[in-house]
Write a structure and sequence with these properties.
This protein starts with a helix and ends with a helix. The chain is mostly helical and 174 residues long. Helix 1 packs antiparallel against helix 2 and helix 6 runs antiparallel to helix 7. It has nine helices and no strands.
Length: 174
C-alpha cells in the first residue's frame, strides 16, 4: 500500500545505516499500529473503533513488558510505543522504566488489572491474555450479524481487524 511505501523505505535506510534489525522492526510495527489506530478512528463502526483501540493498547502493553524485561531505554520505548486512548504512553513508559512491578501498578490504575495479574502469573499466561483480550472484547458481535462491517469495504490495514471479525461472523452462521 502506498501509505506504507515510505515506511518500508525508512526501515530499509535505517537497517542499511545502523545494521539494527530491531530498529527496522520498530519503524514498521509502530507505523502499522498508527495506521490501524487511524483507520479505527475514521471508521463509523463501533466494533472497528474498539478493535483498533484494543489492538494498539495490547501491543503497547506487550512492548512495555518486553522493554522492562530487557531494560530498554526511555528513548527506545518512546519510539516503540504508540499513543492510544486507553493507556497513557508516558505513564506506561514510566512504569516500564521501573520494571515489571511498575508496569503492573500502572495497568491496575488504568483499568487493565487482568493484564497485571497475568504478567505476574507467567509469560505464557500474559501472552494468552493478550491473544484473548481482543477477541473477548468483540465476542458479542459473533451473534449480531447486522452490526458486523463488510470486510471488503474497509481500508487496507484491516486484515488484522477484518479477519477475526469475519471469523466470528462465519462461526455465528455455522
Amino acid at each position: 500500500p502506498e501509505r506504507m511505501a515510505y515506511v518500508a523505505n525508512e526501515a530499509t535506510e535505517a537497517l542499511l545505516q545502523t545494521q539494527d534489525g530491531q530498529l527496522c522492526d520498530i519503524i514498521i510495527d509502530t507505523a502499522t499500529l498508527e495506521a490501524v489506530k487511524e483507520e479505527g478512528a475514521k471508521s463509523d463502526s463501533k466494533l472497528i473503533k474498539q478493535y483498533a483501540e484494543e489492538m494498539v493498547a495490547v501491543a503497547n502493553i506487550r512492548v512495555a513488558v518486553r522493554c522492562a524485561k530487557t531494560k530498554k531505554s526511555k528513548d527506545f520505548m518512546e519510539r516503540a510505543i504508540v499513543a492510544c486512548d486507553s493507556l497513557s504512553k508516558a505513564s506506561l513508559i514510566k512504569g516500564a522504566e521501573s520494571g515489571i512491578d511498575g508496569i503492573c501498578s500502572y495497568l491496575q490504575s488504568a483499568g487493565y488489572s487482568e493484564a497485571a495479574e497475568h504478567i505476574k502469573e507467567s509469560p505464557s499466561a500474559f501472552e494468552r491474555w493478550c491473544d484473548n483480550r481482543i477477541i473477548d472484547k468483540i465476542k458479542e458481535e459473533k451473534y449480531n450479524s447486522f452490526r458486523i462491517p463488510i470486510c471488503g469495504s474497509v481500508d487496507w490495514v484491516l486484515p488484522a481487524i477484518c479477519l477475526p471479525v469475519c471469523l466470528l461472523h462465519r462461526q455465528s452462521h455455522e
